[in-house]
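Issue: copy button drops trailing tokens. Both records pasted manually instead:
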Amino acid sequence: MSLSPDKASAAASNLKPRGSSQGGMRQYNERVVLQAIRLNGRLPGAEIARLTRLTAQSISLITKRLLEDELLIKETPLRGKVGQPSVPLALNPDGAFAIGVKVGRRSLDILLVDFTCTVRERWNLSYSFADPEQILTHLADCLVKIKAKLSPHLWERVQGIGIAAPLHIGGWQQLLGLDADVVARWERFQLKTEIAALTGLPVQSIKDTTAACVAELVAGRGRDVRNFIYVFVDTFIGGGLVLDSHLHIGKHGNAGALGSLSLGITGSANSPQLLNVASLYKLESRFIAAGLDGRATSDERAASAAYWPHTQAWIAETAPPIAFAMLNSSCLLDLEGVILDGCFCSAVKEALIQAVVTSMQDFNWEGVVPPQVLAGTIGSDARALGGALLPLYANFAPDRDLFLKLDG
């Protein structure tokens, strides 16, 4: 599926939210106003009218309703100009909440996100491999903590849960040394259905790396880059695809699946995939073989003196195949940029990006314009944050189709 280019993208920075001053458009116009403030920050009524092309009278009525619904708050009046001081309006952080759940192969992340997309609380659970029952138990414990932190009034404003998880979480069994019983349980387990039954909240789901791409599109560099491949390095490397500021997920929800890109040209079924050489499980293996903690892949220890030689060796092995993937993607899509992020510290990310840029020079780009390689801005929270954005945007963004059809 690709999102219709003739609809306003709720995630794009170049969105110019335009409403209609005719009757019968209240809900849509409210969403347009909320989106204008979300994209531009606090705004006085006159500026909202200019951006949305709604009349001053319409803006007055709409913002009055949004203030009454506690979705907007008034900030300190702006003084110093002729006439009455203007009163900026801003999103009320307590206006709505969502819960983002990232189910990974090595860890579970749960975020409580407010109406401004700020992470209020986070919980993390690490494991050797995801077990369905363990995930439900931990989520249930976190829900108790979330309810304890939110008053009953605020709990009613929780819009739902967004799940970010691999499409085939039980896949690559031999590569990761997975227990056959756990894999069999995942084949029988309906994650979305079980979480909905556990929580009683609306639940939406999305592929984990696509969720990370959503977070970057909405809250990161996607505001400035219209056409990009998103690369996220985790246990397995993966990605997402954004064209004309619209998320594309493909017929099977798997567009941008860079990890499955073949690195061979012989036609052999045994040709390695990108994930076989450019994933964090390879760095984890290097650490363990050296007698170090494999879990250090996701924290600053990976850049410390004891770990750095092994990290450098992994970067040297990883950068060329990522550059190769960028070349092939650019030939097909004529990309503006590649945004690279991952579940690692900033020092490792910066070193990997520099190595990828250097490796690009070893390939023949004749006839193709190399894309700019940019660092992602969200980091490890990207997948869970992208999940939390699903219910928030479904309920409050003017482009109602932006994330609603991801499960279809």
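Record 2 (pasted manually too):
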Amino acid sequence: MSEKIYCVAGFKPKPGKEEAVFKALQSLEPNTHREDACIHYTVTRQIDNPFAQGSSYPIVFHEIWASREEFEAHCQRKEIQDFFAKHVEAPDGDIEDANVCVYTDEPWNFDAPKV
């Protein structure tokens, strides 16, 4: 049974704040990569491409964590909580909206063997 958690965290910066938000999110990468449970943690920005013209928030974190518990522990780190408090929750923050979702790769009713 896979215990991995996949997180997609999208951010909509306030007008003119795109570069500042991208840099602020990039600053979270080094310490997060030090977490043993972090498998993948990369912030990306949307680019124009004729083969992918969907709509999304312009800045997205792609994350893979070893387990739900370890993802939730990451979310409780002071650096992460401070980021959301300063940039998302504060009225003068640089982010207009954020959308953080987690996913599993397990199919419905997966009957993983118990070891």
